[in-house]
Design brief:
three-stranded mixed β-sheet, alpha+beta, 11 helices, 332 residues, 13 strands
Length: 332
């Protein structure tokens, strides 16, 4: 595969670049990028930012907060973390399968002698510890599959940034996360550096160096910067997309957690919002209008979702599970 070089470690720019390339690059064959962010929390598109971050720690530590275009949960990035993105032509969103698109990174790690295993909805693990999480977004015949590789991430900073917790619980939380999350550095020859790791991944993914760089034009780069400045670096995008509604419910399913907020008038839905870490392949807002002015009842919700089954708007969460949210009976 050919590769694209991202522009530095500014998270606003890199998330803007991911999104711009998904909607505008339109490559004939798959391309990829390996990139890094300085300290940042990347929020899933459907999440409530205020509920995901430790705001005081974020402010004190100069950590960027950016909402991405894909679903899933909030993740912490730093310079001990390697990000990867694949842009792949895919005819229909119904063809998207997570394991299929995690496979290239799985194969790359194994080529370096790293015994990674596929696990859960979208993870890679080593020795039972998560070292990579992945998310996807489909648009206009193309899939963006992106994820993280934890090389030597600051676990304590991760815990503090992502959890609004009392100080007395931080130590226990760090121990808990360290028991579940691993750093790849601990599983390779200790002489290997992060740069060595990145270069080795690039060498494998470019067909042992035979495939070159995909160069972007000055006009394309300028448009990406405009996306950064006008959307991904703004409060409205990163924080403002968390409205309050009259009806709220929460449930956690095998396919992820979901919160629903809705404004109801005369028994019909006037406004609706879904947040959570569900791994929708497509943006549920594409069908938002189909919920409006419809009866507020589970059967109606199930019917709407059945009509859009191929979109995989809520990932592995079933239509019946989604409909159950509208009974008012949440579950954890």
């Amino acid at each position: 595969m050919r590769f694209i070089n991202y522009l530095g470690t500014d998270a606003y720019m890199n998330i803007a670049m991911d999104s711009w390339l998904l909607y505008n690059l339109k490559p004939r064959e798959p391309v990829f990028a390996l990139w890094q962010n300085k300290r940042a929390v990347i929020i899933g598109q459907n999440q409530n930012t205020f509920g995901e971050i430790n705001h005081d720690y974020i402010e004190q530590s100069d950590i960027q907060v950016v909402r991405r275009m894909s679903g899933g949960g909030a993740v912490y990035h730093d310079l001990g973390n390697v990000c990867f993105t694949f842009f792949v032509p895919v005819e229909q969103s119904g063809q998207v399968n997570f394991k299929q698109f995690v496979q290239p990174m799985y194969d790359a790690l194994h080529s370096l002698g790293i015994d990674a295993q596929l696990s859960g909805r979208n993870d890679l693990e080593i020795d039972g510890k998560k070292v990579s999480g992945n998310a996807q977004r489909y648009a206009g015949g193309y899939l963006m599959h992106h994820g993280t590789l934890l090389w030597d991430t600051d676990v304590e900073a991760m815990v503090r940034a992502l959890n609004v917790a009392d100080e007395k619980f931080i130590s226990k939380a760090v121990k808990s996360v360290r028991a579940r999350v691993g750093n790849i550095k601990d599983y390779v020859d200790q002489s290997q550096t992060l740069d060595d790791f990145i270069n080795a991944l690039k060498y494998y993914l470019t067909n042992k160096g035979q495939d070159g760089e995909y160069h972007l034009s000055d006009a394309q780069l300028a448009d990406i910067k405009r996306w950064r400045d006008e959307r991904f670096a703004t409060w409205d995008w990163n924080y403002g997309r968390s409205p309050t509604f009259d009806f709220e419910n929460h449930a956690k399913f095998q396919g992820g957690s979901v919160d629903v907020q809705a404004n109801i008038a005369h028994g019909k839905i006037q406004a609706i919002n879904f947040t959570g870490d569900f791994l929708g392949v497509r943006d549920w807002r594409e069908i938002e209008k189909d919920f409006l002015d419809q009866p507020f009842e589970p059967q109606t919700i199930a019917k709407i979702l059945t009509n859009h089954q191929d979109g995989q708007y809520f990932g592995g969460i079933t239509n019946d599970e989604m409909a159950s949210l509208f009974t008012g009976d949440g579950n954890d």
